[in-house]
Amino acid sequence: MKCFWFSLVMVLMLGVGVTSAAPDAWQKTIAPGEQGFYAITDSSIRTAANQNGQLSLHVSVQRAGDPDQSQRTSLVNTVLGADQAYEFDVFLGYLGVGDQVNVVAMNTSSNIAPPTEFSYKVTRQTAIPVSVLHEDVSPAKAYPFAGDWRIKELQDAGKPGTPVAQSHHCEILDDSVRITMPSGKAMIPRDLVYTVPQSGTYALHDTHIKLDKGHQAEIKLFVGKSIQPKRTLRITDEASLDLDLGYLAKGEQVRFAFGTVDRLVQIKMTAAISQWAVRRAPLRAHRFEDGLLDIYEPQSPRHAIDIPEEHWFTVGAVPGDATEQIRTAIKQAISKRQSDDYVGIRLVRGQTYTVASEQIGGRLFEIQNTSRFVFDGNGATLKINSPEIQRDDIDLFTVDASNKVMLADLKVVCDKLPYATGMITGLDPLHGNTQTVTFDLVPGSPDPLKEIARKGNANGYAYDPTTPGQLAYGAWSFYPGAVKPNLVATDKPGQFKHTVTRTMDSLKIGDRWLIKNKRAGVLYLVTRGGSEDVTLWQFDCKASGGGLLRNWATDAINILDTSIRPHDGRWISTTSDGIHGRGREGVWVENLFIEGICEDIMNTYARTMAVKADDQPDDNVISLFLNERDPKIRNKRQLRKLSTGDSPHVGDKLMFFNPKTGNVIGYAMVTAVDGSRYTLSNPVPGIDAWESDSEPAATMVYNMRAAARFVVKDSNFESSMRYAIYIKAPHSMIFGNTFQKLASPPIYAANEPGWPEGPAPSHLWIQGNTFVDNNFSYMSRHRAFLNVDPACISIYTRSFTQKDKDGFNAYITHDQYANSNVKIIGNHFIDWRGMCIAVRNARNLHITDNTFHNMIVEDAALRRTLANDPAMSENGKGVYAAIFLDSVNGAVIKNNHVTSLPDGVVLMRQGQDVKHVDTDIK
């Protein structure tokens, strides 16, 4: 076969665009001083409509220090047919001296039609400094988020080791640490061990090792759980070591094993640990010995900003309601702020402050038009006492048009609940798809008619009778009320009847029945007005209500070290989504324990835009407007002017999506903005402009930097109604979390063109997570509504139209690849049913090093459902598959393990249109 290479090996041109027009190959290695994290950005390729044959696209990294120079790390691998568009932005990792990036596009025909577009940049990324050895081993300078450095001797194997500052074998110098090695005839090891503070992708940077002159030593570097050294150095005098450490889970270690022979040797060492993330570092806080908070800003995450005593306003104990005193303190602090100083208010530790006693709904504490403000709860308790909290929600904190705001260390309680619970004691026979539920209130529950649904109209929810927050086995996410009124009291005190639809024999006597007011209770944080760098830190959320966060077109909002879960016999913690919204830089969630959410735990998305027709449809200047539901006419849309927070910026990348086919028709960069007119880097052929009589067919436009770049790590998502993370946005990092007892797929990545919300998510990095006993709802067991695949990780693209009868009512697409660039690595799946990983509509997929444990959950209903799918049936019976692929082009599926394969369980199954898969599965 003749091949023509029209672009070969473009290496590390910082910020330089590369085009396919250059047939000459050239290379450049990383020179000293250029080490760092790198990524391919602003990429786009479109093949010609008359392309003969297929175009193969590869991106790889060659590590200079790898023992086998022929082995390259493949990062992008896919094949494009004629007239296809693809963007291959990809994180390259930390590149050290001598490392090389290869971008290769190869056509299988000698009669080539070159791509009509082919461009990208290789750019150095901003690193987040985490730890510096000689600084972080000193108690006086210790940075609280830097991890832990210790010394281990040979005899300390299996022990935690000695803090460097307390070791007799270490001396802390101004710019380094000096380690004294013992003398002796045998090679005697002494280990310097670093423990990672959070899960992430790390690098060893600016590392230098110097020995006493004329001496020799051997250093082996061990990373994570590997028993094989990642690098071995035999040093005479001195050496440098900068290295990509890859993904490390919270608590894993980086170990330097030093060894010398014969003589007493002193080793002088400097080392720094950095990490990379898809967005800026979070705004952090730490309480030091003086009891006051210090702040760590994203642009300088290792520098503690001390807030002097005179910049704090303390609200003392208040008899009665403290709302006005706290509001006054907030206003005073903001008015006194000068220059770039931080100001804050503090509550008194151990005190309880009653608030909102005379407020019905709305905003409680507002932080507006300011910067560098801290609300330090100082471990105190806020008691929400609104008289109508069961009817109207209270927004606890609203941050509007502000940045660098820290809300810290607070317990929030409320005695009143915005929902009622009972036990199902009777079920009338089905009438069509309508059924009447009889339930008796449990002790302590609010009255569903007097306090929750006063007009007698409500939806119902069936919950497990023993586990708070967990839906009943086989239940729908909710049951809509069937008539008006649908909720009535019986003659028996505390007993009610509720007539609902869509039950389908899924209800059982003995289950809990819940009726909620979705827009009631406490909503902890709302961010608006383009706010940035807002953190909710160390909150103990014990007031039931409307959710944890609503972020509306705001950037870099952070939820850190926080808990929100049912307590004191309560059955849910919130009545709507836990975290919901959008921003150009998404939410950073870390060390969150969240449970009992009566909606999605986290829902992140972008707003949909459309192109308004103009008199030059084929040029590269377009008019963009919001494409949203018309509130007056059901199933109709309207064009609205873009708000400031939703408008694309120069340098943003737009994706153009055909909602009829589920196909990405092209990408373009924004090069100029003039009102609603946007100049693009290139025309995008095939755009259907928005017209009032055909608007459902209009091309949907999404900003790849809107609702993008979010981080979720080291958190627990448990016992909630539907999805843990519903993703309609690109660029996510989901690391080191536990997902347990979620009724539907815990990680669910799919667009919703009918809502409309999107885009179809891409660039998903899911690593080191644990999934336990999920997907037990009616939707998962019957492949109903949105749940196309009963998997712990479900990724697919939705369209408006159903192409085949086996679409499972989810409007799946085939031979389309909107969900590209996905990494699913090193996850554990326990007590699983149906599937663990299901990926559709993706180019460049990596599924590696996952473990599917042998605790398979038998589910007769799900088996029957799968038997109807030709790809999931065997001898007329449904099979479980740990990995399911459909419409995948270019994948690496390797080193995945099922601890056993009982009858009816396979490691991988494929549906339609699966091509170019590199796998070790036989």
Structural class: mainly beta
Count of alpha/pi helices: 5
Q: What is the straight-line distance between the termini?
A: 27 Å
What share of the residues does DSSP label as strand, in percent? over 45%
Identify low-pLDDT runs.
1-26
Main sheet characteristics: 33 strands, mixed
- What gross morphology would you assign? globular
Rg, rounded, reads 29 Å
Number of strands: 73
Arithmetic mean of pLDDT: 91
Helix content: under 10%
What does it look like?
- The chain is mostly beta strands and 922 residues long.
- The chain is built from five helices and 73 strands.
- The strands form nine sheets. It has a 33-stranded mixed sheet that branches.
- The chain is globular, with a radius of gyration of 29 Å.
- Residues 1-26 have low confidence and may be disordered.
List keywords for this structure.
922 residues, mainly beta, 33-stranded mixed beta sheet, seven-stranded antiparallel beta sheet, 5 helices, 4% helix, 46% strand, disordered N terminus
SSE inventory with pairings:
Elements: E1 4-8, E2 17-19, E3 36-46, E4 55-62, E5 73-80, E6 85-86, E7 90-95, E8 100-107, E9 117-124, E10 128-132, H1 133-136, E11 148-153, E12 162-163, E13 170-172, E14 177-181, E15 188-195, E16 200-211, E17 216-223, E18 231-236, E19 238-240, E20 243-248, E21 253-260, E22 265-276, E23 284-287, E24 293-297, E25 300-306, E26 312-314, H2 323-336, E27 343-346, E28 352-355, E29 362-368, E30 371-376, E31 381-384, E32 394-400, E33 403-413, E34 419-427, E35 434-441, H3 448-452, E36 461-463, E37 487-489, E38 495-501, E39 512-516, E40 522-528, E41 532-542, E42 547-552, E43 555-564, E44 579-582, E45 588-595, E46 602-607, E47 609-612, E48 621-629, E49 637-640, E50 653-658, E51 663-674, E52 677-680, E53 700-703, E54 710-713, E55 716-720, E56 725-728, E57 732-735, E58 738-742, E59 747-749, E60 757-758, E61 764-767, E62 770-772, H4 778-781, E63 793-795, E64 822-825, E65 828-830, E66 835-848, E67 851-852, H5 860-867, E68 873-874, E69 877-878, E70 880-894, E71 897-898, E72 905-910, E73 914-919
Parallel strand pairs: 26-27, 27-30, 28-31, 29-32, 30-33, 31-33, 32-40, 33-41, 40-42, 41-43, 42-44, 43-45, 44-46, 45-54, 45-55, 46-56, 54-57, 55-58, 56-59, 57-61, 58-62, 59-63, 61-64, 62-65, 63-66, 64-66, 65-67, 66-70, 67-71, 70-72, 70-73
Antiparallel strand pairs: 1-8, 2-9, 3-6, 3-7, 3-9, 4-5, 4-8, 10-22, 11-12, 11-15, 13-14, 14-22, 15-21, 16-19, 16-20, 16-22, 17-18, 17-21, 23-24, 24-25, 34-35, 34-39, 35-38, 36-39, 37-38, 46-60, 47-48, 48-49, 48-52, 50-51, 50-53, 51-52, 68-69
